[in-house]
Amino acid sequence: MDKQADYAYMQQALKLAHHATIETSPNPKVGCVIVRDGQVLGEGWTQPVGQAHAEVQALRDAVAKGHDVRGATAYVTLEPCSHFGRTPPCANGLRDAGIARVVAAMQDANPQVAGRGLSILREAGVEVECDTFPDLALQARELNIGFFQRMETGKPWVRMKVAGSLDGVTALNNGQSQWITGAAARQDGHHWRARADAILTGIGTVLADDPMLNVRGMDMPRQPQKIIVDSHLRISAQAKVLQGGVLLVCAVPDTEKQAQLEQAGAEVICLPDANQQVDLFALMQELGRRQINELHVEAGATLNGALIRQDCVNELLLYLAPKLLGSGAGLFNLPELTHVDQARVLQFHEVSQVGEDLRVLARFKQAG
After folding, report:
1. What pLDDT, on a 0 to 100 scale, did the predictor assign at position 179?
2. Residue 168 CB: number of other CB atoms within 10 A?
């Protein structure tokens, strides 16, 4: 086979998968290209949850264009699914359409699939190749990093967004914080909110800022789920964040206040730890059960520090403004160390400039 052509068509499938970034969760974002004799017969990407997957979309596209796909090759950025969920198995669809060869960027991590889709195709006489191009497999995984995290650990991929000055100040001592970073960085932050399934903050931020905690400045087919960590249910029933529904996570039950908040549209769950604070690790497990793939955290230094201390954070999304602000609130409340070797170690994943500010993506080496 022409590996150079295979590589190019898989790149094309990955570009298609990016069209599915916002609406597909909890399903992975997948692209598919169907080709025969150097001609692209059909293309597709995963549709909103409950609708067609990429392979079905590509088959439909080929039919709409009057093409017969029998004997063709399907390039898919993830192993075709093999189970009946909200839609029928894509492996069966490719097999029944007469596809002769399937090239998958990587195997699915979903235990309901995990090689079974490829086996269905092989048993039907379809030629199958998978994980042929490690760099493209990595791109496919990065596009679905939250899906893989949830399938492999039962918890979402947690990305913590913080913004501050070069000397690590997020707000002045008088509470002023608007605006340390520029408009371009703030809008970029909304794009990261948009790709997440849920946005989490703490009661301190709600009481201080009364935020909406939504995505603004761009067209959104859906808003991320809002989650508030509020150990003692101090939130007001009139808080703006309650509009459109919110998940409130407490540690100390208050039946009367809970009824009031539920009437205002909130869902309240109680996940206490031994210190009457929210058990953050248990919360991550609960969000995994709720099929949250990517969790976007925008909180204050106290909750940020608690999440990091409990190894609940996978990645920092850090915006740094070219300013020095001196004394003020820091990025994270973390315990004092006695030796440099005790430091939590991260790896730089990406560093780029957004407007006048610096955007740093850094990943914890041992986050769960």
Report:
1. 86
2. 16
Question: Catalytic: 256?
Answer: no
Confirm if 50 and 22 have CB atoms less than 8 A apart: no
CA distance 80 to 8: 20
Confidence check: pLDDT of 85 > 80:
no
Euclidean distance between CA atoms 280 and 275, whole angstroms? 12
Spatial contact of 121 and 102, defined as CB atoms under 8 Å apart: yes
**What are 263-272's pLDDT values in tens digits?**
999 999 999 9
Angular region, 175: left φ>0, alpha ψ -120 to 50, beta rest? left
Return left, alpha or beta for 347; rule: phi > 0 is left, psi -120 to 50 is alpha, else beta: beta
Angle separating helix axes 3-17 and 134-143, nearest 10 degrees: 10
Strand positions, DSSP E, the chain: 31-36, 39-45, 73-76, 101-104, 127-130, 157-165, 171-172, 198-202, 225-229, 246-250, 266-270, 294-297, 315-321, 328-329, 346-354, 357-364
Give the pLDDT score at 368. 43
Determine the pLDDT at residue 328.
84
Q: How far is CA 263 from CA 188, 235, 251, 267, in A?
A: 34, 14, 20, 9
Contact indicator for 334, 305 with CB cutoff of 8 Å: yes
List, edge to edge, every strand of the sheet that includes 225-229. 266-270, 246-250, 225-229, 198-202, 294-297, 157-165, 315-321, 357-364, 346-354
- DSSP class of residue 272 equals B
This prediction's pTM:
0.91
Please tell me the distance from the alpha carbon of residue 287 to that of residue 157, in angstroms, as a whole number: 10
Cα 50 → chain centroid: 18
Q: Give 187-231 pLDDT, tens digit per residue.
A: 999 999 999 999 999 999 999 889 999 999 888 878 999 999 999
* E strand map for 251-341: 266-270, 294-297, 315-321, 328-329
Report residue 324's pLDDT band, with 50, 70 and 90 as the boundaries.
very high
The C-alpha atoms of residue 194 and residue 282 are separated, in whole angstroms, by 25
Which of the following is catalytic: 55, 79, 294, 315? 55
Q: What is the mean pLDDT of the chain?
A: 91
Q: Kindly state the average pLDDT of the residues 177-193.
A: 91
- How does pLDDT run across 10-22, given as a tens digit for each residue? 999 999 999 987 7
